[in-house]
Amino acid sequence: MDFAFDNGFHAAMEGFYAPAEAARPSVPALLAFNQALAERLGLAVGRAKDAQLVRVFSGMELPQGANPLAFAYAGHQFGHFSSQLGDGRALLLGEVIAPDGARFDIQLKGSGPTAFSRNGDGKAAIGPVLREYLVSEAMAAMGVPTTRSLAAVATGDLVQREQAHPGAVLTRVASSHIRVGTFQFFAAHFGVEHVTQLSDYTIHRHFPELVEATNPHLALLDRVVGLQCELVGHWLGIGFIHGVMNTDNVAVSGETLDYGPCAFMDRFAVNTVFSSIDANGRYAYGRQPQIMHWNMARFAEALLPAIHAVDPADVDRAKAIVDAIPDRFRDIWHHRMRAKLGLGQADEADGRLIDALFGELEQHGVDFTSFFRALAQLLRGDGAMLQALLPDAEAMAPWIADWWAQLEREAIAPLERADAMDAVNPLYIPRNHQVEAALEAAEAGDLAPWTALLEVVQNPYVLRPAWQDYAQPAPADAGPYTTFCGT
Ligand code: AMP
Ligand code: MG
Asked: Whose CA is nearest to atom 11 of ligand 1?
């Protein structure tokens, strides 16, 4: 199999990675392969047999031109700085250029120890691998910038966590793996030249138009901040909780990176936390914008030497960019919420309406995903879906009346508006109880529920009566849901 690799990082950034080698799996078997993504990437796998895919995507056989390496990075984990992290359970096979010219990293995750594994085994268990595959593909289908999943292969080996689990390797595709933590690594260990080198590389790879800016490093900060505001706006809009927004898990490309204990909320509650290791709720649903702001402040700090070297006066401009994040995020968020609520033109009253909505949803324990579909149904003259979500007929009536009044400012036909809302409000998300059941079955050797769920979440917007169960929240008697990092 020839991927026509073009390994730019390897050539340009020597010293900032370690060569890596994949462990040999004992009895690898293909769990999933993403043919559509392979085509998008222009990979020459058209006639490859499953056996060959298995060898390549388990790390057993190195495709021609691969130059496997583990990235070095640092990062703030739950607020505490660690100057030496790095790919401890992942290796980059190489970079490919898709037919449209876009460059992608192809990485194996769970393929054994690297120079950065510390005490870890470098392995991944099947549950987290299939969770990442499913959730990242659901995110892509919902238009959220994200890393993608190309393949999942069972290794036939056991991975010891609290219990022993079957092991697996995920093939992750990203527009790059440059993280805020990569900048922090360069800033912590090296001088301004290296930070500048990484910034130049990032600009060249992701934002070539910024080369022309008066201070390209300042322009990079501004661009990355904008992308992170957009990203977190996407997350909040679909009830997604990343779970580990450590700076090493923040991609400067603006893609969602590192699916660990992530999950979607059913009933709206702003403090929702699923991760077993997030006891203080640092990464709760509603805290994600603040944490993004904090992470961007750490990014600015790491970039500062490069910014300062071009023009010391730009340090104040960098500070202003970071200080403006809450306002910038709010604008992006309101824009997104207007689309979800079917509001067209921005209006002064929207902010109040949007803010008030979340108090109402929380007070009445409304299923977040279904609510927006129910509003569209109301526009079609069918109030039954909304009624079924609310405790009584009067609940939210004043808010609904306010929303209706806002809609009436614009002469848009209700059906047209309802269709526009349905096009941005998913009906099918990876519901926690469905994900859990699918992963449990997969671990026991039955992939059918996982494969069925994958197909559902890859088609999030269009109603299919046969998929009715997938649109339902967890049953009312389901206990609290907890997720674990444990790849
Ligand atoms: P995460 O919390 O998933 O972002 O991981 C944080 C750091 O721990 C990264 O540097 C990972 O590479 C490393 N790590 C996590 N799990 C393992 C493992 N099983 N073996 C080696 N390193 C790991
Ligand atoms: Mg990570």
From this structure: 88
